[in-house]
Design goal:
Elements (H helix, E strand, L loop, with lengths): L1 H17 L8 E14 L10 E12 L4 E22 L2 E23 L2 E18 L2 E21 L4 E12 L4 E16 L1
Antiparallel strand pairs: 1-2, 1-8, 2-3, 3-4, 4-5, 5-6, 6-7, 7-8
């Protein structure tokens, strides 16, 4: 009887000690995206160029679970305007202005299907304005709270690299305006443990 109890204890102990042999993979990845951006605003100028370039860099921690977390920054063109004969109460002048944003976000991503994930982020936009009127140059910088949401599809090339695309909607609270960006994405898992 004692021999049976000892054997049962040894079997249970070996299951506890060796039963969790599981190949779990945690990774830290970087994503680089470049593409097209469209700015949606309430400014009413016929010559306002709302189409431009956007780019992003993300560093993500990807645990074995579906939810990943990381940091994102990049560049997002918002608008530019160039009017040669701009009439004001002080006379006619050449008017130029442009704005771009640099997001600094904390980002969450969740896999919802193979190769498909939803992303959401919040943080701040660093807004950079420049302009020229009556020969005087004007520059200003602002900080705005912002958020974005998106959906991404990536196709694996090998165990560490994948390519795909992402559609991102962004909101800039200080301007109360939005952007939509469509980007090509390259993702690389540079650290697995």
């Amino acid at each position: 009887m004692k021999l049976k109890i000892i054997l049962i204890n040894l079997i249970l102990l070996s299951n506890i000690t060796f039963g969790q042999i599981k190949d779990t993979v945690y990774s830290i990845s970087t994503e680089i995206g470049v593409g097209y951006s469209r700015y949606f605003t309430t400014m009413d100028y016929d010559d306002l160029n709302k189409n431009g370039f956007s780019g992003l860099v993300k560093v993500m921690w990807n645990p074995e679970h579906l939810l990943s977390i990381g940091l994102e920054t990049g560049y997002q063109y918002l608008y530019s305007i160039d009017i040669s004969n701009y009439d004001t109460e002080f006379g006619t002048t050449e008017f130029k202005a442009s704005m771009y944003a640099v997001p600094v976000f904390i980002v969450f991503a969740m896999k919802v299907a193979p190769n498909v994930k939803l992303t959401a982020g919040t943080g701040m936009h660093l807004l950079y304005n420049s302009g020229e009127i009556f020969g005087d140059k004007i520059q200003s910088n602002q900080i705005s709270i912002g958020a974005h949401a998106g959906v991404a599809y990536t196709y694996p090339i090998n165990n560490s690299m994948s390519i795909g695309g992402e559609l991102i909607y962004s909101y800039i609270s200080k301007l109360q305006d939005q952007t939509v960006a469509l980007q090509f994405i390259f993702a690389y898992d540079f650290l697995k443990f």
